[in-house]
Design a protein that fits this description.
With 405 residues, the chain is an all-alpha fold. The protein has 2 domains: 55 residues, no CATH class; 318 residues, Na+/H+ antiporter like fold, CATH 1.20.1530. Helices cover 77% and strands 0% of the residues. 49% of the residues are buried.
């Protein structure tokens, strides 16, 4: 029998502990009228190696509660499933219905926080560092949006479809923005170089989207493939592998796969299977995000101010950029407000930018900690504000109303 290294064994045990406690917190979060996402992040903070998890590690003499490669791999799987489910719930029809307004919301929703963050940060840090901070503050966490959309029961509403499509497109815009900034920071500031990088990325994304929507539904008409319950997930894994190889985020491939499978004959069955998987793995990404936060950073006034200031700029810029497009498309100010607030949470791409800045020497531990704090503050605050905004919306026909007590 194969014996796993201690780190792998601890990581598997850690995953089981996280998932069990996350499941127990769901009814408690409902009674407290908090989105489950918030409870899961707080759980991760509490069980991190910087808090109670570190105490347990020292008492037992083990490295149980740590963030390692194995744990991050499970967390990435959680994100992939969340975005696959979001694509399944939206489908190409939802993407088409959102139309140019969702594209505009994604673009403005990234450029507004990027611009305001760069303008403010450039007064305190070098311009290259400010540019990367702006990129980190720009992108919405599609994983958080997908979870909020599901937990708040607005998946079948116009606002819910607009929100998830804008969030998915937001990731594309953010990656294009990161490409431009890395080109500039690297010293290649000529217009042709920047334009070429962006054009290649856009074309690659569109080709993948069209190819998936054309090929996958047709392939699933074949009886042998249609009857095999795991085939839609095969397409998911293949698309994720392709987009990662092309340099995109895995969440884009997962969302495209969901869009394509949603147009097939097995869409309903795949949704049911995906919901079962999310019952087990949906919480893990958020617990791991919390587990990466060092609570001792809250004791440093300068760092606390930088993180909360960055969160404020990110939130204000996002709402300002998204609200107008959402209102123009939905025609309903309360629904547009809910969409704009739902786009506030930051997460995976911002943390990736933080890692890039650290390895490139443009960030120190202070900037990285500020980005982590910004991600947590916007996710907790944005999730809470979104739930309150959704609670004020009139119920839509066919929409599932989540419990409030």
């Amino acid at each position: 029998m194969l014996t796993l290294p201690d780190t792998a064994e601890y990581a598997l045990l850690e995953v089981f502990v996280f998932l069990a406690l996350a499941e127990l917190l769901i009814p408690l979060a409902g009674r407290a009228r908090l989105p489950p996402v918030v409870a899961w992040i707080v759980l991760g903070i509490a069980l991190s190696s910087f808090a109670l998890g570190g105490v347990v590690n020292r008492l037992l003499g083990v490295g149980l509660f740590t963030v390692n490669t194995y744990l991050l791999l499970f967390a990435d799987l959680s994100v992939v499933l969340l975005l696959f489910a979001a694509g399944l719930g939206s489908g190409v029809r939802g993407l088409r219905d959102a139309g140019a307004a969702a594209v505009g919301a994604a673009i403005a929703g990234d450029l507004a926080p990027f611009a305001v963050t760069v303008l403010v940060a450039a007064r305190f840090v070098p311009v290259p560092t400010a540019l990367l901070l702006g990129v980190a503050a720009a992108p919405t966490s599609a994983a958080v949006v997908a979870s909020l959309r599901q937990s708040e029961g607005i998946g079948e509403t116009r606002a819910g479809r607009f929100l998830v499509n804008a969030a998915a497109l937001d990731d594309v815009v953010a990656l294009l923005l990161l490409t431009v900034v890395l080109t500039i920071v690297g010293g290649h500031v000529d217009v042709l170089s920047v334009t070429g990088s962006v054009a290649e990325s856009v074309v690659a994304w569109l080709v993948l989207l069209v190819a998936a929507v054309v090929v996958i539904p047709r392939a699933l008409r074949v009886p042998a493939l249609r009857e095999a319950k795991g085939v839609p997930f095969l397409f998911l894994f293949v698309l994720v592998a392709i987009v990662v190889a092309l340099g995109f985020s895995a969440v884009i491939g997962a969302f495209i796969a969901g869009l394509a499978v949603a147009e097939s004959l097995v869409a309903d069955r795949t949704r049911e299977l995906t919901e079962v998987l999310l019952l087990f793995f949906g919480a893990l990404f958020f617990v791991v995000v919390g587990a990466q936060f060092d609570v001792h950073d809250l004791l440093l006034p300068a760092l606390l101010g930088a993180g909360l200031g960055l969160a404020g700029l990110a939130a204000l810029g996002k709402v300002a950029g998204v609200y107008g497009f959402a209102r123009g498309r939905l025609g309903d100010p309360p629904a547009a407000r809910a969409v704009a607030l739902g786009m506030i949470p930051r997460g995976e791409i911002g943390l990736v930018v933080g890692a890039i800045g650290l390895t490139s020497g443009l960030f120190g531990q202070t900037e990285l900690a500020a980005i982590v704090l910004m991600s947590l503050a916007t996710t907790v605050g944005g999730s809470w504000a979104f739930r309150r905004a959704v609670a004020r919306l009139p119920p839509s026909p066919g929409a599932e109303v989540p419990p409030t007590a």
